Amino acid sequence: MTVSEADYNNMDAGARQGDDARGPGRRLHGAIAHKLGTAILSGKYAPGEILSGEVAFAEELQVSRSAYREAIQVLSAKGLVASRPKAGTRVLPRDRWNLLDPEVLGWAFAGEPDIEFVRSLFELRAIVEPAAARLAALRRDKGDLKSMKDALAAMRRHTLTTEAGRAADRDFHKAILQATRNDALLVLSASIGAAVNWTTQFKQRARALPRNPIPDHVRVYDAIAAGDAAAAAEAMNVLVDLALEDTRSSMTQS
Amino acid sequence: MTVSEADYNNMDAGARQGDDARGPGRRLHGAIAHKLGTAILSGKYAPGEILSGEVAFAEELQVSRSAYREAIQVLSAKGLVASRPKAGTRVLPRDRWNLLDPEVLGWAFAGEPDIEFVRSLFELRAIVEPAAARLAALRRDKGDLKSMKDALAAMRRHTLTTEAGRAADRDFHKAILQATRNDALLVLSASIGAAVNWTTQFKQRARALPRNPIPDHVRVYDAIAAGDAAAAAEAMNVLVDLALEDTRSSMTQS
DNA sequence: CGAGCCAATATGTCGGAGTAAATAGGGAGA
DNA sequence: TCTCCCTATTTACTCCGACATATTGGCTCG
Question: How far is the CA of A63 from the C1' of D5 (A)?
């Protein structure tokens, strides 16, 4: 009983939209994990603190122990907590948290985002994306260029004020990552893309964008299409710098 | 007894911490997650494939459904699988996998490691670590330098042939990441550290190390201590390049 | 100050009721 | 007759709560 490739892809596309878009639309243990995850990320539970016993918590949340335990397994898998018999379930130190997990990233931005953490994220982006653009310029094929071109067109149609526009922006960056032929870099795309999405939302919240982002993106595309590695890296560098600048000013302003 | 005792003992990797992290004994659901995780990473279950029902699998492994479900929650949290009522739990496409999760990384290297993936990892390392060294040279304080110095001393005492030596190597790189004052970069340390640990094990398996790694590390340390950003980045660059070269040759040779 | 017991707490198990969704079957319209 | 939509069934995950076990921090005793 083999599932055809087409069937599988269709299924996945539909399912992705379903469970990515909605936060509480998940199952019960997912909702509990979300609740506890945001609580931990926001500092409501400090590292080293012990979550009151299994049964106590389950009763407090009005759910069964099974649901609570499954939620704990999720948090444990992401390195947020660890539980041992007799010792209880305690929050792990921050450097054990898997902050690049897209879900954890979402929890981190659920409340008031830590501006220092945002700075760290952009610093990482400023390191990874120019290097990725350099590799993309060397390895891209026609398919990659088409993906980027399509994403750019979508960015022009919608603007960054719409979700569709931000999705196009993410698609553009993802296409670049894909062109690097590097799985490890590609995985970072999900994390960084999610983070960028949150921060661009903040930009929008503060005020209308003061700058048209399209020309900067086009410069990156042109350099990659031309196969000019140095120019691609440099163009991506200014793109990230400008994004950081925008985010910083809008955050300090609010 | 379908779950062998050996499955319980494969813990740790890059988990060691200066904190109160005592040797954690594996639990049943952890063992099952490990079993299924390695099976998926090794390609035994292809993306899109459906894992035969909850009850069937639980019976096959001679464990309760609860234990199996908790294992599935772990895999689901790492993006390896997704389960929906009636549809069953199916393996997600590779680009949804959280490959930078230290545990997933461990599963990926449990069997025969994909050489293309190793190349990707080192490419990422070649991007991140020199940039990290550059930042570390600008921001390090006395405490950071002491951590690096201690790690270097430990590397000299033990060699890379011992687990203690490899731990010291990881500590050295982690100290650099810590000196960048960047949480996002620091989190990568766990992933990259784990990966490096696995690959250095492979290097050892193939043959004795042809080169003394200490001088290269010392050059990095000196540049960071001197606050010379460019020199630190360059020194780290050659360090990573040499490591990649060693790994590549030992893998193609075997 | 160490060895050993004890109880608190997480871990593992079981079976059943609930719920969502894919598929098949039947009915209405063209 | 063919196509489409709608409903019913069936299947598998989801959630529950009680019970049994294992582990271990902390206490007591020597």
Answer: 39
